[in-house]
Amino acid sequence: MNRTNPFDEIEQFLGRASFGGDRAWGRDLRTTDIDVAEYDDEFVVMADLPGYDREDIDVRATEGRLTITAERDTEREDGDHEADRRYLRRERRHESTTRSVDLPGPVVDEDASATYRHGVLTVTLPKTADVADEGHRIDVA
């Protein structure tokens, strides 16, 4: 009888993404959904990060791997602040998410750019120009 480990299936479903990416687990299991698109001369990664400020987001490209990290404090001070409030349980204090993805090909890390609009982070990574991709033409005699 061939038995499989159900936890392997759960991990595969929840923790693995295409392109060799993985999701980092936080206390509250929050992850960032991404899309990776390939164009002629660049890769574009789009990540959903609703509710974060631009300053809360850190994007790094290193050796063919893109890592997106976002952190924020969910408690906001407003005019209705009670100094004598005592929390019995407090779970909304800090949120963070991290997502890494292996890029499908080599990129020029230094020329990468990112924009953040309406809760969507878009990272553009130019591909490394490689003459070898076209191959070498061999004349037939």
UniProtKB/TrEMBL annotation:
Record Pfam families: HSP20
Domain of life: Archaea
Listed InterPro entries: A-crystallin/Hsp20_dom, HSP20-like_chaperone, Small_HSP
Region of interest called Disordered, as start-end residue ranges on this chain: 70-110
Basic and acidic residues bias locations: 70-86
SHSP domain span: 25-141
Entry similarity comment: Belongs to the small heat shock protein (HSP20) family.
Name under which the protein is recorded: Heat-shock protein Hsp20
